[in-house]
């Protein structure tokens, strides 16, 4: 089914971070619809990027190609409307004194992740759009992709405003868990008066729920709640269930409504776009959407909702209430945590106890090196590969920061630095790390610092000693 233009508002997105260099010329991509394909040409760097999108009538649009003509082409598909682009990450690095995008990776809301395009060396970047969608890109281009940034929109600005809430629409195969209303000869439903213009199911009880519920359908819209031109659908609770002695209960419900697509056998799922909980009580026994679906879309045969004058609506609701089974997790963040070092014969401890420098002797002639230390009740490691790890020619030094037992989730913000022996701060090579470590962390997937051996020789003194430094800004603890 094609999304109608009125369903989403793609205009006036917010421009976010730009990563990369300042060479080349500007490019800009703001489609009037969701991005469905990202086409990346890549080799040692990212050569070019282009996109495909679909408009509200289902027509596919292709963008220009932003960058050069080299590289191997890969395509990352995004299956709108069931999924959409949520995050981008990558690296950028220098070539002949200019910064270019070195690698890119994309991830959707459903957790589908592209492979890493290009080579993941250089400065790292990452952006994830929480409670919203990445809707466009911009940047700079030349014979390579010089820079890239994103346009985003939160749900609240993307989905159409109804009289009740903002609605999020998705599709799924599984029917609703609680109520189904099958209507045959739909056109014969009375709509001539306000009272006769609605249908109320009987009340139903559900195992484990001490309440009775029913559906209320307005086939021509609930005019009292700005539902004109739309199907209106509500869930109602039996008011008699709410009375307790001299008081009335309040019931908190996570609520979804459904409309069956008879062609695809999938259910259009409609819920509050911001995940708001609906409250039922003495003064509010009915909750739902006055603009569930436009009558024009509902009656269009190509959309599959009304077939042979028959249709199906549904509701699914989960009561939220405190329980003795609720499990509590405590997250504590330590600012500037103290560090206890090991390998003391090769460590100079700074006076503040927070920044530590390791002296790695005979660096260029060593094999792999490991430095161990404690911070915020966890053991940490610096893994150093003087000739790189999984690099074809062994011409890159790779450095990784890791934590022992990543199954105990931990957040860290730290600075890892290669220090210049001569004290020339402008020559120091450093990277800021800000990420969560857990059991999904791929230990050798993302080096925190990479340097060409031809460059790192400038940081090694006459005796072959290299200085590495770590300063923790924040570490979490979860109990």
Automatic annotation (TrEMBL):
<dbReference type="InterPro" id="IPR033734">
    <property type="entry name" value="Jacalin-like_lectin_dom_plant"/>
</dbReference>
<dbReference type="InterPro" id="IPR001229">
    <property type="entry name" value="Jacalin-like_lectin_dom"/>
</dbReference>
<feature type="domain" description="Jacalin-type lectin">
    <location>
        <begin position="13"/>
        <end position="154"/>
    </location>
</feature>
<feature type="domain" description="MATH">
    <location>
        <begin position="176"/>
        <end position="317"/>
    </location>
</feature>
<comment type="similarity">
    <text>Belongs to the jacalin lectin family.</text>
</comment>
<dbReference type="InterPro" id="IPR002083">
    <property type="entry name" value="MATH/TRAF_dom"/>
</dbReference>
<dbReference type="Pfam" id="PF01419">
    <property type="entry name" value="Jacalin"/>
</dbReference>
<protein>
    <submittedName>
        <fullName>Uncharacterized protein</fullName>
    </submittedName>
</protein>
<dbReference type="InterPro" id="IPR008974">
    <property type="entry name" value="TRAF-like"/>
</dbReference>
<dbReference type="Pfam" id="PF22486">
    <property type="entry name" value="MATH_2"/>
</dbReference>
<feature type="domain" description="MATH">
    <location>
        <begin position="353"/>
        <end position="472"/>
    </location>
</feature>
<keyword id="KW-0430">Lectin</keyword>
<dbReference type="InterPro" id="IPR036404">
    <property type="entry name" value="Jacalin-like_lectin_dom_sf"/>
</dbReference>
């Amino acid at each position: 089914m094609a999304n109608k233009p009125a369903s989403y508002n793609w205009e006036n997105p917010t421009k976010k971070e730009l990563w990369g260099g300042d060479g080349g010329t500007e490019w800009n991509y703001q489609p009037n619809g969701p991005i469905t394909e990202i086409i990346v040409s890549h080799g040692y760097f990212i050569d070019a990027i282009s996109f495909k999108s679909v408009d509200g009538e289902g027509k596919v649009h292709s963008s220009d190609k932003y960058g050069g003509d080299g590289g191997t082409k890969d395509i990352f598909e995004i299956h709108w409307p069931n999924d959409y682009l949520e995050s981008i990450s990558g690296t950028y690095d220098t070539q002949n004194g200019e910064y270019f995008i070195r690698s890119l990776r994309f991830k959707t809301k459903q957790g589908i992740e592209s492979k890493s395009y290009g080579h993941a060396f250089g400065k790292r970047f990452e952006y994830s759009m929480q409670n919203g969608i990445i809707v466009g890109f911009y940047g700079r281009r030349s014979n390579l992709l010089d820079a890239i940034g994103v346009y985003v929109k939160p749900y609240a600005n993307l989905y159409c405003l109804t009289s009740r809430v903002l609605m999020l629409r998705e599709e799924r195969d599984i029917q609703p868990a609680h109520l189904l209303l099958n209507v045959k000869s739909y056109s014969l439903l009375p709509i001539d008066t306000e009272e006769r213009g609605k249908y109320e199911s009987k009340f139903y009880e559900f195992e484990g729920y001490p309440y009775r519920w029913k559906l209320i359908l307005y086939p021509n819209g609930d005019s009292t709640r700005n539902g004109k031109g739309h199907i209106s659908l509500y869930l109602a609770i039996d008011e008699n269930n709410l009375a307790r002695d001299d008081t009335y209960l309040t019931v908190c419900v996570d609520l979804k409504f459904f409309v069956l697509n008879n062609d695809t056998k999938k259910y259009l799922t409609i819920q509050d776009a911001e995940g708001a909980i609906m409250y039922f009580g003495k003064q509010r026994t009915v909750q739902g959407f006055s603009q569930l679906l436009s009558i024009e879309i509902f009656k269009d045969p190509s959309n599959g909702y009304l077939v042979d004058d028959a249709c199906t609506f549904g509701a699914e609701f989960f009561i939220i209430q405190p329980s003795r089974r609720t499990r509590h997790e405590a997250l504590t963040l330590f600012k500037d945590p103290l560090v206890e070092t090991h390998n003391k014969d090769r460590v100079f401890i700074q006076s503040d106890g927070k920044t530590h420098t390791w002296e790695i002797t005979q660096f260029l002639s060593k094999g792999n090196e490991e430095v161990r230390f404690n911070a915020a009740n966890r053991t940490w490691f610096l893994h150093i590969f003087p000739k790189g790890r999984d690099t074809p020619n062994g011409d890159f030094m790779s450095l990784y920061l890791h934590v022992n037992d990543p199954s105990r989730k931990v957040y860290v913000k730290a600075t890892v630095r290669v220090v210049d022996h001569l004290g020339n701060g402008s020559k120091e090579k450093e990277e800021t790390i800000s990420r969560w470590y857990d059991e999904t962390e791929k230990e050798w997937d993302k080096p925190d610092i990479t340097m060409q051996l031809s460059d790192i020789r400038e940081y090694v003194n006459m005796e072959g000693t290299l200085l590495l430094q770590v300063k923790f800004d924040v570490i979490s603890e979860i109990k």
